[in-house]
Design brief:
Helices cover about 75% and strands about 0% of the residues. It has about 325 residues and is an all-alpha fold. The protein folds into 2 domains: about 220 residues, no CATH class; about 60 residues, no CATH class. Strands 1-2 form a two-stranded parallel ribbon. The protein is flat, with a radius of gyration of 23 Å. Keywords: Membrane, Transmembrane, Transmembrane helix.
Length: about 325
């Protein structure tokens, strides 16, 4: 699956990013524990016995952004070569595309998960040495951040395998990360405006489901930390989504037409359906924006027309215009 020669090539080509990402992911967890202890020591100097030494992972500001290095790494491994136009040289090497994909993916996943495990162990060691009075959410949150960052990596990597440049990769990944909202919540909100009745009144059980369980089917929701206080089994959802995105990325990387590098989508057949979807989203989104200005159907219709025009223009120039290599 993973070839040593390809592994060496990817390391030499992306070693700066790999090292920087690894250092950040390994350092952030123990840094947060140490910073909490230093704040506690400063409090002792000022307020004395009134200070308490607690480690609460939900208060870890930097740990919440462990997904960001995963996004950067996915762009470097799966997007930049298409933008630079150097992927043809990679495809000319005596390796199969499956070997190339597995090498890139598992290298990135190993760096993301491995260095976070190192940071998790160092933070645990600091907790044992510093002996805080209470530790909240440390184990669950640390393990969860590994899964969430792998989800972010798999999502952006699969988008990079489907698209022909970095901009398309990031835009596609973001769209997919909020796709459940766009597919379900946006049309329902428009239905509320058109019929003048809230969905929570017509379908209270469905509305309760959307508010409670549905949010965890939206990948971008894991940027928030609400999943920590929910059931521990919630983490099975991003784990399964990571596997799905891995499978999509593998299929696209192996089957893609390389001659369309630089285009938004590597498959020409996706251009028109996606353009239609973008126009529909523009219509639904801008119609709500127009309605919110004066709560009139005139504003709703005007917003619909403006959204359709903007959706068409944006989709046309973004999807059908080939990006020049940098």
């Amino acid at each position: 699956m993973v070839d040593r020669g390809l592994m060496y090539r990817e390391w030499m080509q992306n070693r700066t990013v790999l090292v920087m990402v690894g250092i950040f992911l390994a350092a952030v967890n123990p840094f947060e524990v140490l910073n909490t202890y230093l704040v506690y020591q400063g409090c002792l100097d000022t307020h004395g016995a009134y200070c308490k030494f607690y480690v609460n992972s939900l208060d870890s500001g930097m740990l919440n952004f462990n997904w960001a290095p995963a996004v950067i790494l996915a762009v470097c491994l799966f997007g930049l070569e298409r933008t630079k136009g150097t992927i043809d040289a990679l495809f000319s090497l005596p390796y199969s595309r499956a070997q190339m994909f597995h090498t890139k993916f598992w290298l990135g996943a190993a760096v993301i998960a491995g260095f976070q495990v190192i940071g998790y162990g160092l933070a645990e060691l600091l907790i044992l040495l510093l002996k805080p009075e209470r530790v909240y959410f440390f184990h669950h949150y640390s393990v969860g951040e590994i899964i969430v960052s792998i989800l972010a990596f798999a999502l952006v990597a699969s988008a990079g395998c489907l698209t022909g440049n970095t901009f398309a990769q990031l835009l596609t990944a973001f769209t997919v990360s909020i796709a459940p909202y766009l597919i379900i919540s946006l049309p329902l909100t428009n239905a509320e405006v058109i019929f003048g009745v809230g969905m929570h009144e017509l379908m209270p059980s469905v509305n309760a489901y959307l508010n409670d369980s549905f949010q965890y089917l939206i990948p971008i929701m894991y940027v928030n930390t609400d999943w920590v206080s929910a059931s521990k089994y919630i983490l099975l959802i991003p784990a399964v989504m990571s596997i799905v995105f891995y499978a999509i990325g593998y299929f696209c990387y192996v089957r893609q037409p390389a001659e369309r590098n630089g285009r938004f989508f590597l498959w020409r057949q996706l251009d028109r359906p996606v353009q239609i979807v973008v126009i529909m989203i523009g219509v639904l989104g801008f119609s709500l924006a127009g309605y919110s200005t004066g709560h009139t159907m005139t504003g709703y219709v005007v917003g619909m027309l403006v959204g359709g025009a903007i959706g068409f223009l944006v989709s046309y120039f973004v999807i059908y215009k080939k990006t020049k290599h940098v």
